[in-house]
Amino acid sequence: MREGVDVTRLRVRADVGTNVCLLLVEEATARRAILCHQRVRTTDLTLGDVDRAYVQSARVLHLDGQFMPAAIQAARWAKEVGLNVCFDGNHPRPGLDELLPLVDWLVVAEPFPAAYTGLSRLDDAARALLALGAEVLVITQGQRGCQVWTGDNHFQAQGFAVQAVDTTGAGDAFHGGFIYGMLQGWSLQQVATFANAVAALNCQTLGGRRGLPSLRQVEALLQA
Question: Is 131's pLDDT higher than 70?
């Protein structure tokens, strides 16, 4: 609530556990690995009519597919009222064949295109993903920045050199920056550069949230 995040629709259930994850960060490279004990099932979240009104009142729907049936339902509701749907793709999972055609902004980790499409060449895999219906495809590439694809355009947005301590949360920070930029109506080049800056700044402290930058901090990095 302190950060202006509405948690009124947060679900708490006594019969559902919480995933327990251990993050290992390599000091020399700031790269991280996650060991996770899954205690949540993909079907543990269900949506109802109240959720429909809530989803359709948004400006953008952002999903990661953790609860796939609920994600598909929410995406369908979003499309009914013309909302853009953004999806964070980190690895293939059951149900994506049904969800991806509902996605407008597809933002995926570098291994995802080949893993999902079975195509080893990046440009072939990117075109295959775009053919599913997305307006924009973004492939994040860590410190190298990201590649952006549309039906008629493709470019590389370079990353930013920072003293990285922990890359945990960099992808999520990128998605937040990307959605913010898209909502401002910026060009895709501006959006991608801004998102790269948000992700880079987030890597300068331990933990996934502690280093999330303010808008002023991102603007300072861009100007520098």
Answer: yes
